[in-house]
Specification:
Layout: E1 3-5, E2 11-17, E3 22-27, E4 32-36, H1 40-48, H2 52-60, E5 66-68
Helix pairs in contact: 1-2
């Protein structure tokens, strides 16, 4: 999955597969996580948010099933 670098104190880069609605986030700590069933509007909101980290914590974390890669 292709990632787009983001400027954030928490997130390093973000990838998204609209077909499977899988969001993949690489954190600055080095961990890579996949979140499942994420609609495209949530991905778009993350990418356009003034704070990627705050958006992630408000709308993605604890709202979707996930796995660590």
């Amino acid at each position: 999955m292709q990632h787009i670098p983001v400027t954030s104190s928490d997130l390093n880069s973000v990838g998204y597969d609209p077909t499977s609605q899988t969001l993949e986030i690489q954190f600055n700590s080095g961990g890579v996580y996949q979140y499942f069933g994420v609609p495209s509007n949530i991905y778009e909101g993350l990418m356009t948010a003034p704070s990627h980290g705050k958006y992630f914590h408000a709308y993605i974390k604890n709202n979707y099933s996930w796995r660590k890669l």
